[in-house]
Amino acid sequence: MPPLMGIEFLCRVADVLTDYLGSLNEDLIKDNFVIVYELLDEMIDNGFPLTTEPNILREMIAPPNMVDKVLSVVTGNRSNMIDTLPGSTSSCIPWRTTDPKYANNEVYVDLVEEMDAIINRDGVLVKCEIYGEVQVNSHLSGVPDLTISFANPAILDDVRFHPCVRFRSWEAHQVLSFVPPDGQFKLMSYRVRKLKSSPIYVKPQLTSDAGTCRVSVLVGIRNDPGKTIDSITVQFQLPPCILSAHLNSNYGTVNILANKTCSWTIGKIPNDRAPAMSGTLVLETGLERLHVFPTFQVGFRIMGVALSGLQIDKLDLKNLPKPPYKGFRALTRAGEFEVRS
């Protein structure tokens, strides 16, 4: 097996388990061991990947729920597998349910992006890039053929596609041509590098002497994206040498968690003032100055805009009896957004 195939298969396993269990951790795998075993038995055969499409696996193995868990305890039958093999497993389009039918045909396309950025202690943007996904939710009858074209595909880098995408169409014309799976799936992922600015700024100032450290943090909008920036949070880990912290803000709430993490929840930036947090950190006995300064983790969300600048030009559909409803959305949120002090 080629090395990259093994890595891709492990990523598929993680995605499928997350889709089934809601998240992925050791306790969930132990609690749902039978389903995990059955999924792995279907996903790999004789050491080679076989069925890895979540939509088809859901037809073969029912996702866990409370009723099934109660019945398994009563009856002793813990298997969630169906008795008959889905027809799509022998189809030439193995990722799509066999001949689905809907009264209302609908397809929704979402651009979901995460901004990773590093800002140094002088306020200079060292790194800023976008990791994005094109997510599709398709409820279309029959075997539709879809084509998505972008207004500016040249900005995309490190693209990765769902198996349904015809790669030759992308290589030749930078167009996504595909027969979609039924339901929600990730059509492609991409990266946009070397962005020049971030939507918000966070300016921390720390001055330390005489066994204390004074903290001041200012947050505001740097470049207005034209949409509301909400769910703004600022977090930082208190150094081990800090005995106590007294912090307050003129907007939002400040909490010191049990693991010595300071969390400042702002939400939306008000129009009448810039949110500011200030206070004092008390150092342990014998320390005059703070020598290890924290890194601030910033979170935010912007609905209705893709900060990478990627735009969907059009979505064409074929092999449908009547025109479907088409919907488009965009979302940008903070990924690894760090401000150093």
From TrEMBL:
Top-level taxon in the UniProt lineage: Eukaryota
Compartments in which it is found: Endomembrane system
Biological process terms in GO annotation: intracellular protein transport; vesicle-mediated transport
Domain MHD stretches: 104-340
Keyword Lyase: no
Primary localisation category: membrane
One GO location term (cellular component): endomembrane system
Record's keyword terms, sorted: Membrane, Protein transport, Transport
InterPro entries membership: Adaptor_comp_med_subunit, AP2_Mu_C_sf, Clathrin_mu, Clathrin_mu_CS, Longin-like_dom_sf, MHD
Family annotation (PROSITE patterns): CLAT_ADAPTOR_M_1, MHD
Family: Belongs to the adaptor complexes medium subunit family.
Record PANTHER family: AP COMPLEX SUBUNIT MU
Protein name: AP-3 complex subunit mu-like
Originating organism: Pyrus ussuriensis x Pyrus communis
